[in-house]
Write a structure and sequence with these properties.
There is one protein chain. By secondary structure, the chain is of the alpha/beta class. The chain has two domains: 4-163 and 364-371, Phosphoglycerate kinase, N-terminal domain (Rossmann fold), CATH 3.40.50.1260; 174-339, Phosphoglycerate kinase, N-terminal domain (Rossmann fold), CATH 3.40.50.1260. 37% of the residues lie in helices and 18% in strands. It has 14 helices and 17 strands. The chain has helices at residues 34-49, 67-74, 88-95, 112-115, 119-126, 145-149, 160-169, 188-201, 209-218, 277-289, 308-320, 329-338, 352-360, 364-371, and strands at residues 14-18, 25-26, 29-30, 52-56, 79-82, 102-105, 131-134, 156-158, 179-183, 204-207, 244-245, 250-254, 257-261, 271-275, 292-296, 323-327, 346-347. The strands form four sheets. It has a six-stranded parallel β-sheet, with helices on both faces. A six-stranded parallel β-sheet has the order 11-10-9-15-16-17, sandwiched between helices. It has a three-stranded antiparallel β-sheet with strand order 13-12-14. The termini are close together.
Length: 372
């Protein structure tokens, strides 16, 4: 991939940037601006270089608007907003865009051709730039028109953050040892190849959250009303691996009452919702021994208020001083709530993209830039 700083003579050049402004919005207020903040260095660079920049992004579903993001960025940059790329007024605004200014397009998922990677739509979108920059690592596991289609038509470059993501996450493929990999969350069907891979690369692989429930079930334990995968998955390749560790205790909910149990005594009426204090003790010991940590996913149902063991884990990693790379939506929410961003070596903006990159060492968005 060519980094954007390799592009020559940006002054007056039309640059199309794929951002990831898919941020949580309540009413008209952005409640977490982390992804936007991480894009600001690139926008400042393009402004300083005198480029005429068009920003394209998606936000959640096709009904949602990027207007709150526009209002947020307009406080810092000279920027226009357009609702339809095919409207005549859009062409006029684009044609008259001054050097150092920005044009933001409305939610790209409002167009049918985006998610289907329609060639005509990708070509139409490419007309908003002489060069293309991908600054949306966190969306680059999607083979959508604005990610993989556009760079077929105009030269493609990696953005500043995109380049950082690839370089930092790649450290996990040849890390210092002892290497501790912590993976939690749900959906084991998509994560089994990742676990198999890192059982070879890491010294210890801890599996938590709903992922651990699947392994408890495979070991013959009762999982009660806990979240488990619906698919039948063969865990024989990982269960007996001595590098694999699971929660020693779990937080259990039953008829509104919360208790901490060992996984082997969970009943049919119980629902495992989080890790327990003994699990945190085991992880804290492993963290002290480690020289490199990779962490993705909360230990419990974070969105339902089960946060404490994840908080303990985040603080332990932050205070350890160990090189640590972390990512995932609820993981970022934890770090934000505790105000620990500066304590980690690298915080990835990717959730699914981070995991897919770690599993495959590439993404559709990366391959598209290589071919551009």
């Amino acid at each position: 991939m060519k980094p954007i700083k390799d592009a020559e003579k940006l002054k007056g050049k039309r640059v199309l940037v794929r951002c990831d402004f898919n941020v949580p919005v309540s009413g008209k207020t952005i409640t977490d601006d982390y992804r936007i903040q991480r894009t600001l260095p690139l926008l400042s660079y393009l402004q300083k270089e005198g480029a005429k920049t068009t920003l394209v992004s998606h936000i959640e579903s096709e009904e949602k608007t990027l207007m709150p993001v526009f209002a947020y960025l307009k406080k810092t940059f000279s920027m226009s907003f357009v609702h339809d790329i095919y409207d005549q007024s859009t062409k006029e605004i684009y044609g008259n865009l001054p050097e150092g200014d920005f044009l933001m397009l409305e939610n790209v998922r409002r167009y049918e051709g985006e998610m289907s990677n329609d060639e005509k739509f990708a070509n139409d979108l490419s007309k908003f730039g002489e060069i293309y920059v991908n600054e949306a690592f966190s969306a680059s596991h999607r083979a959508h028109a604005s990610i993989v289609g556009v760079p077929k038509y105009i030269p493609g470059f990696a953005g500043l953050l995109f380049d950082e993501e690839v370089k930092n996450l790649s450290k996990a493929f040849n890390p210092p040892h002892p290497f501790l990999f912590i993976l939690a969350g749900a959906k084991f069907s998509t994560k089994l190849p990742l676990v198999e891979k890192f059982l070879k690369l890491a010294d210890t692989v801890f599996i938590g959250g709903a992922l651990a429930n699947d392994l408890f079930k495979a070991e013959g334990y009762e999982t009660g009303k806990s979240l488990v995968s619906e698919e039948k998955i063969d865990f024989s390749s990982i269960l007996k691996n001595p590098k694999l560790i699971l929660p020693e205790d779990v937080t259990v909910e039953n008829a509104g009452k919360i208790s901490v149990e060992t996984p082997d005594v969970v009943s049919k009426e119980d629902k495992m919702t989080d890790a327990g204090p003994k699990t945190d003790e085991v992880l804290e010991k492993k963290i002290k021994e480690a020289k490199f940590i990779l962490w993705n996913g909360p230990l419990g149902q974070y969105e339902k208020g089960f946060k404490e063991p994840t908080f303990v884990l985040a603080k332990a990693i932050a205070e350890s001083g160990v090189e640590a790379i972390v990512g995932g939506g609820d993981t970022l929410a934890t770090i934000r709530e505790l105000n620990l961003f500066e304590k980690f070596s690298f915080v990835s903006t990717g959730g699914g993209a981070m995991l897919e990159f770690l599993a495959n060492e590439t993404l559709p968005g990366i391959e598209a830039l290589k071919k551009a």
